[in-house]
């Protein structure tokens, strides 16, 4: 199955799949195939986000969320132009993709999309909603916290909660928890 299949003409529900750190759309092929086997084309459209593949996952939750939001909006607009109306939205995120999806949902909300779309499901798995920073003492944990946060660029700083989101002076994950 191709990861970014175009939706059918009659389905009204869009399900978006978002992969994690170092990921690519093919990492979600099994999930997309399983959903397709369970729900026919006339019940569910599947969009596997592809804009954050590979090294783009280092760009952080905010930029990744903006990219996924753009993909969702482009898909919705393309479907509307072809006479296909989407009325329901579900989003599934894996690992870092869960955080990216969470951010994207917030952007969709602020842009007014949920006045037109009914949110059905938001599901994440293996997603570090509280970050990955180790609170434990000791040299190994200190190395993990310092090196990990820096090796993974913006995403690492956000996952280890050492970033400061815009003018809030707080980590993005703390803002997302509000």
TrEMBL record:
Keywords: Lipid degradation, Lipid metabolism
Pfam families xref list: DUF676
Keyword Lipid metabolism: yes
Domain of life: Eukaryota
SUPFAM superfamilies membership: alpha/beta-Hydrolases (SSF53474)
A GO cellular component entry from the record: lipid droplet
Name the UniProt record assigns to this protein: DUF676-domain-containing protein
Lineage of source species: Eukaryota, Fungi, Dikarya, Ascomycota, Pezizomycotina
């Amino acid at each position: 199955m191709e990861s970014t299949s175009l939706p059918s003409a009659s389905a009204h529900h869009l399900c978006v799949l978002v992969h994690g750190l170092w990921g690519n759309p093919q990492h979600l092929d099994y999930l997309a195939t399983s959903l397709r086997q369970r729900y026919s084309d006339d019940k569910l459209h599947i969009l596997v986000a592809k804009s954050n593949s590979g090294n783009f996952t280092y760009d952080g939750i905010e930029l990744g969320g903006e990219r996924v939001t753009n993909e969702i909006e482009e898909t919705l607009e393309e479907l509307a132009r072809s006479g296909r109306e989407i009325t329901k939205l579900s989003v599934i995120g894996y690992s870092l993709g869960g955080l990216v999806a969470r951010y994207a949902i917030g952007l969709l909300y602020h842009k007014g999309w949920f006045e037109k779309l009914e949110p059905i499901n938001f599901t994440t798995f293996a997603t570090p909603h509280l970050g990955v920073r180790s609170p434990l003492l000791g040299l190994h944990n200190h190395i993990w916290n310092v090196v990990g946060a820096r090796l993974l660029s913006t995403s690492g700083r956000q996952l280890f909660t050492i970033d400061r989101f815009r003018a809030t002076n707080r980590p993005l994950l703390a803002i997302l928890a509000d």
